[in-house]
Amino acid sequence: MDCIFCKIINGEISSYKVFEDDLVFAFLDINPLSKGHTLIIPKKHFVDILDIDNKSLERVAVASKNLAIRYSKKLGAEGFNLRQSSGAIAHQDVFHFHMHLVPRYKNDGIDLNSHHTNQFIEVEEVFEQL
Ligand code: 5GP
Ligand code: ZN
Questions:
Q1: Which is it for strands 79-83 and 38-42: parallel, antiparallel or unpaired?
Q2: Cα–Cα distance measured from residue 24 to residue 9, given in angstroms and rounded to the nearest whole number
Q3: pLDDT of residue 117
Q4: Which residues contact 32 (CB under 8 A, 6 or more apart)?
Q5: Band of residue 121 on the pLDDT scale cut at 50, 70, 90
Q6: Mutation choice for ligand 1 from 39, 81, 98, CB with most ligand atoms inside 8 A
Q7: What is the CATH number of the domain that holds 124?
Q8: Number of domains in the chain
Q9: CA-CA distances (angstroms) from residue 24 to 9, 39, 124?
Q10: pLDDT per residue over 54-92, tens digit each?
Q11: Residue tagged active-site, from 37, 98, 100, 116
Q12: Which atom of ligand 1 is nearest to the CA of 13?
């Protein structure tokens, strides 16, 4: 399969690996938003959040937590954004499930949390549909 993340897992493409076990692989993002920006991925090829199996998702989550602990100690990260994009409309660019772990530092200038939207969303209406 022509998937760059599968190629990273099997070593065809080199990467800065920060963690690996039987189900999970984690490596530094090539175009980092912040120091330590990491991608945590399942070793099995799943496309997105609709596709990934629960076991792999759980293990990706636990690996993300453990890396956050490590980065808080070793990099002095003061906070983290965990981010996952599923689907082209959500700006997923690589169609092998991946969790972004973005360490945050004082005055890093990153604005992932802006609540700007071009739509007015009535929260109560959304709630009633759930
Ligand atoms: P997405 O936009 O799909 O959520 O994120 C894809 C991420 O993969 C981007 O942050 C991009 O920098 C990263 N990326 C793409 N190709 C490579 C690569 O070959 N090596 C590494 N380490 N990261 C990559
Ligand atoms: Zn893949």
A1: unpaired
A2: 9
A3: 67
A4: none
A5: confident
A6: 39
A7: 3.30.428.10
A8: 1
A9: 9, 10, 38
A10: 999 999 999 999 999 999 999 999 999 999 999 999 999
A11: 98
A12: 19
CA-based nearest residue to 77, from 106, 109, 38, 99: 106
* Ligand 1 atom at shortest distance from the alpha carbon of 27: 22
Cα distance from N-terminal residue to C-terminal residue, the chain: 37
Nearest CA to ligand 1 atom 18: 30
Please name which ligand lies nearest the alpha carbon of 99.
1
Q: Measured in angstroms, how far is the CA atom of residue 124 from the centroid of ligand 1?
A: 36
Q: Are the CB atoms for 81 and 112 separated by under 8 Å? A: yes
What are the structure tokens assigned to 64, written together? 């993300």
Domain of residue 74, residue span:
4-129
